[in-house]
Design goal:
- The chain is built from 16 helices and eleven strands.
- It is of the alpha+beta class.
- The strands form two sheets. A six-stranded mixed beta sheet has the order 1-2-6-3-5-4, sandwiched between helices. Strands 7-11-8-10-9 form a five-stranded mixed beta sheet, sandwiched between helices.
- Helix 9 packs across helix 12, helix 9 crosses helix 15 and helix 12 packs antiparallel against helix 14.
- The chain is globular, with a radius of gyration of 22 Å.
Length: 420
């Protein structure tokens, strides 16, 4: 259950009560992220996320922000994706005013001190190095860039070193003014809280938010034309991602897409796990995932394999795609995928943070908010015929993209494997 209301400023306030919990999560969603950036802004959305924690009027620096939340045993964090950013504090219910106090001070009064900007440049560069040194993450970023091309949706959220090294206080303020107005935010309360309590807190702590409407982003119109990207790195394992363009979050086949990915490689009873890890011992981790944006999507399988068995892994993953495209999935696989997805959602939504994310993201991005009943009805409505048709349409050899991080860069060799 959720209740969506709007303050006079245009700020949307969503309340999602949870029975049987003693916690409250207060989460602010912003229509921000890397797809809202221009080329000379790459990384500013993520950098801005870091800078919000550098203090405002009441909580003047990172230490005071941290001490306030740590002092009551709460959790706080933030995230920046392609299409939205979020900031949250999760506390025991009696501390919900403190959560609002900290978040509102950040949003209303962040000053972005120049000396803190300079220090945080180094932090972000170290974060970028961490991802570069973690090939299973880096391969996913490379795949999105390969698939989505030189479009803001294809850019990683860390950004470019040039922007990280050069961005200034005025750049942060300008970006905040463009994207953090009340009409481009959703304030979400979830947990042990009522609608009347949430609206009172929203007005008291966030009612003064002001600013313009949302800044438009560049629509996505065409997937990248290249099929292979290789990153030469001296690793013990080769890390690979193989996938195809998928469907968007607004497509009629959005839930069909999710269920297809689960059947292919979404859990330990999926085809990829049983036939490639268990039957062949080819890898430790393997999974198939769906990524859905407002106007683009991806279906991809990732794995880490011994360098000597890389060709075998690529061939067997592509074979599973071929079989699924030709024969579809079984009724038993579909039933299991549906129950798996609904079960995971049910377990996740017992947590106030997860519930805030589930509803708040929808309220920010989508024209319609699905509650749990509607979400499950959409899952149950997917038929085997629909999944089989989608598999046949998506899982074609001419649409395959491959990313490999490992030793060597023989593009012709991998082109043959994809075409074989």
């Amino acid at each position: 259950m959720y209740i969506l209301s709007t303050l006079p400023s245009g700020l949307r306030v969503l309340t999602a009560p949870v029975e049987g919990t003693a916690s409250v999560t207060v989460m602010v969603f912003a229509g921000a992220g890397s797809r809202y950036e221009t080329l000379n802004e790459r990384g500013i959305s993520h950098f801005l996320e870091h800078m919000f924690f550098k203090g405002g009027h009441k909580y003047r620096n990172t230490e005071e922000v941290s001490a306030a939340i740590d002092g009551v045993g709460g959790d706080f964090n933030a995230f920046t994706g392609k299409e939205y950013a979020g900031y949250y504090v999760k506390v025991a219910s009696e501390q919900k005013e403190l959560a609002c106090d900290v978040l509102s001070d950040m949003l209303l009064h962040a000053g972005f001190p120049p000396e803190e900007i300079d220090k945080e440049r180094g932090v972000i560069m170290e974060e970028e190095k961490m991802y570069q040194d973690t090939p299973m993450y880096r391969a996913g970023w490379d795949f999105e860039e390969l698939l989505l091309g030189n479009h803001p949706l294809g850019w990683d959220t860390i950004g470019t070193e040039q922007v990280i090294r050069s961005v200034q206080q005025s750049d942060f303020q300008r970006h905040k003014d463009a994207l953090y107005g009340p009409e481009n935010l959703v304030l979400t309360f979830s947990g042990a809280i009522t609608e009347s309590e949430a609206m009172k807190l929203a007005e008291e702590y966030f009612g003064a938010l002001s600013g313009g409407a949302s800044r438009a982003f560049t629509p996505f119109t065409q997937y990248g034309s290249d099929s292979i990207f290789l990153r030469d790195k001296q690793t013990e394992q080769a890390h690979l991602v193989i996938g195809v363009p998928g469907v968007s979050s607004q497509d009629d086949d959005h839930f069909t897409h999710k269920l297809l990915c689960i059947a292919l490689g979404g859990n330990m009873s999926s085809r990829m796990f049983l036939r490639i890890r268990e039957a062949r011992g080819l890898c430790y981790y393997i999974s198939t995932e769906s990524d859905s944006y407002l106007d683009a999507g991806a279906l991809s399988t990732r794995a880490g394999v011994d360098q000597s068995r890389l060709d075998e892994a690529i061939t067997t993953i592509v074979h599973e795609y071929d079989v699924c495209a030709k024969d579809g999935i079984s009724a038993a696989e579909l039933a299991r995928a549906k129950q798996y997805l609904k079960g995971k959602i049910t377990l996740n939504l017992e947590d106030s943070e997860e519930r805030a994310h589930f509803y708040g993201k929808q309220a920010l991005l989508y024209p319609k908010i699905r509650d749990i009943k509607d979400f499950f009805a959409a899952v149950d409505a997917v038929t085997k015929e629909r999944i089989d048709a989608l598999a046949a349409r998506l899982l074609t050899r001419d649409q395959l993209r491959l990313v490999v991080i490992g030793k060597g860069s023989d593009t012709a060799r991998f082109q043959k494997l994809l075409a074989a």
